[in-house]
Amino acid sequence: MAERVWERMKDRDSKECRNCHDFKTMDPAKQKDRSVTKHEGAIEDGKTCIDCHKGIAHKPVHLKKDPAQAQPAAAPAAAAAPQAAASPAEAVATGAANVAKAGATAAASTATAAATAMSAASTAMTAGTGPAKATPKAEAAGATAPAAGGTVTALDWSKVPTRQIKVFYPGQAGLEWIMNKADHSSAADIVEKKRACAKCHEGDANEVGTAIVTGKPVGVSKTVMEPTPPPGKVGFIPVTFQTTHDGNKIYFRFEWVPPKNGDKKLDPKNEVKLTMMFDGGGTVEGSELNGCWGTCHVDLRTMKDAKDDKKTKYITGADLAGGKFMDLIQFRSGKGQAPVDGWVDSERHMDGGKSGLKAEGKKEGNKWVVVFERSLAGGGKGDHAITADKVYNFGFALHEDFTNARFHYVSLGYQFGLDKPNPSVKNYIDVQKQ
Ligand code: HEC
Ligand code: HEC
Ligand code: HEC
Q: Which of 17, 122, 145, 263 would be 333's cystine partner, CB 3.0–4.6 Å?
C-alpha cells in the first residue's frame, strides 16, 4: 500500500504536499541551511517531496524496505568509498514514527491528516535541539602559556576581519559514517554535487553538536554518536577566527569563551590544545569539502570500531612526497610545552616540521586567545608551502578543559587563499596582507 501511495504521489509531483507548501513559495532565509541546500539540489534534479520525505504522515515503512537503512550498524564502511548508490531514495529522518493513527489509512492524501502528522513531525524534529549556552567559567588568572619557541610577532588584530565559526562536538561521527548514505543521507550530495559540509551545517553546527553530546540518535540511521555522554558538556563553542599574512608569515588567531565542561581531566597537563590542519592547496582529495574530516576515521582510538588504542589520525592513500598529507600545527597550554609542528599522512607525526612555528595562548579576562605564526614557505618535512596561486583547505579542533582524543570540538571544512576574495564560496576566507 505504501508503495502505491508513493508512486501516486510521485506521478502527481507530491500534489498533497504542494497544496500547502511548494519550492516556489519557500523562503530560504527561514529554512535551515541543510534544507535550503537539499531543496536546491532537488530542483536541479527534478525531485519531488516524496522522494525524500517518506514516513512523514505514516510510519517510516521505507526504512524496513531498504535493508541498508534498516540495519545501519551492519552497513559496510569502506574508507573514503562513499556508498552513494546504497539506497535509491533519500529518506529524511523525521522522527514521526508514531504519528500514524488507527484508521488513517489513506491519510497521506488528506490534508488534515498530513497536517496532524506534520505537527508531530516538527515537534520531534526540534525536540531537544535547543541551543546550549556556553557558560563562562570563573575568571582565571592572567596569562597561562607564554609562547614556546619564541614570542609571536605583535599585530594589530583590530584591522583584521573576523569570522565566526562554531566548533561542535562530533562524537564518533568519523568519515566512514559521514560518507555512508544509509547513515547520512547527504553523502551523495557531498560526492556528486560537491557540496561542502559548511554549506549545509554552518548554520546548525550548534544543533548537531548538542544532539551528539547528549547522546541523541542522529543521522538518517538514528545512530548514537556518544554512547557515554559527558555530564554537563556543551555541544558547541562559538570561536572568533582571524587570519592575516605579511608576505613572509601567516598568522591565525582564535578567540573563545571557555564553557563549563565538567571536572574530568583526561589531559591534566593541558587545559587547552588547539590544532589546525591544512592541505597543500587541493592536494588532499575531499578536503575542499570536508576540511580535515579525511583524517578522522571510525577505527581510531576511542572511536566506535577501534581495535588499537594507539591508532591516531591518518589519511587513506597518503603520499608525503606527492603532497597528499595534512600539515598539522598545535598549541598546548601546559607550562613549557612547545608548539607541535607535525603532519598527518598514513599516520600522525607530532614533530619534524621546520616552518618556524610559534604559538601563544593566554586567558584574557573570561576569554581564551590563541595565536599561531608560521612561515609561508614551510620548508621542513610535512610542511606545505603557502603560495598566492592556491586555495588551501583546512579545519581545526579545540580540546577544551583538559580533555584529549576525540573528546574535542571540531570545525567544518574551510578554505583560505592569500589576497584572493571569493565571496560566492561560503566556507572561504580571504587572508589579507597587513
Ligand atoms: C494542510 C497543509 C499541509 C500539507 C498538506 C503538508 N504540510 Fe508540511 N507543514 C505544514 C505546516 C503548517 C507545517 C508547520 C510549519 C511550521 O511550523 O513552520 C509543516 C511542516 C512540514 C515539515 C517540517 C518543518 C519543520 O518544522 O522542520 C516538513 C518536512 C513538511 N512540512 C513536509 C511536508 C510534506 C513532504 C508534505 C506532503 C507529504 C507536507 N508537508 C504536506 C502544512 C502542510
Ligand atoms: C532531495 C531531497 C528533498 C526533496 C526532494 C525535498 N526535501 Fe524538504 N527537506 C529535505 C531535507 C534533507 C530537509 C532537512 C531535514 C532535517 O532537518 O534533517 C528538508 C526540510 C524540509 C522542510 C523544513 C524546512 C526547515 O528548515 O524548516 C520542509 C517544510 C520541507 N523540507 C518541505 C518539502 C517539500 C514541500 C518538498 C516538495 C516540494 C520537499 N521538501 C522536497 C530534503 C528534501
Ligand atoms: C547537502 C547538505 C549536507 C551536506 C553537504 C552535509 N550534510 Fe551532514 N546532514 C545533512 C542532513 C539533512 C542531516 C540529517 C540526517 C540525514 O538526512 O542524513 C545531516 C546530518 C549530519 C550529522 C548528524 C547530526 C544530525 O543532525 O543528524 C553529522 C555529524 C553531519 N551531518 C556531518 C556532516 C559533515 C562532516 C559533512 C561534510 C563531510 C556533512 N555533514 C555534509 C545535510 C548535509
A: 145
Q: Specify the residue with its C-alpha closest to ligand 1, atom 27.
A: 122
**Do the beta carbons of residue 323 and residue 317 sit within 8 Å?**
no
- Residues 156-181: pLDDT tens digits? 999 999 999 999 999 999 999 999 99
Which residue out of 39, 186, 414 has the highest number of ligand 3 atoms within 8 Å of its CB and is therefore the one to mutate? Answer: 186
- Which contacts qualify for 335-343: CB closer than 8 Å, 24 or more apart? 335/144, 335/145, 336/148, 337/145, 337/148, 337/269, 337/270, 338/148, 338/149, 339/147, 339/148, 339/149, 339/372, 340/275, 341/380, 341/382, 341/383, 342/382, 343/381, 343/382, 343/383
C-alpha–C-alpha distance, residues 168 and 118, integer Å:
29
> What mean pLDDT value characterizes the chain?
82
Residue 354 in grid coordinates? 621546520
Query: Which residue owns the Cα nearest ligand 2 atom 19?
Result: 35
Q: Is 348 in the pocket of ligand 3 (CB under 6 A)?
A: no
| Nearest ligand to the C-alpha atom of residue 20 | 1
C-beta of residue 209 within 8 angstroms of C-beta of residue 409: yes
Q: What percent of the chain has pLDDT over 70?
A: 80
Closest CA to 274 of 400, 153, 412: 400
pLDDT tens-place string over residues 44-81:
999 999 999 998 888 888 877 665 444 433 333 333 33
Burial of 364 per CB tally in 10 Å (0-12, 13-18, 19+)? exposed
Q: Whose CA is nearest to atom 25 of ligand 1?
A: 122
Give the integer Cα–Cα distance in Å for 90 and 185: 6
Ligand 1 centroid to residue 52 C-alpha, Å: 13
CA distances to 352, 380, 414 from 157, rounded to whole Å, are 30, 28, 21
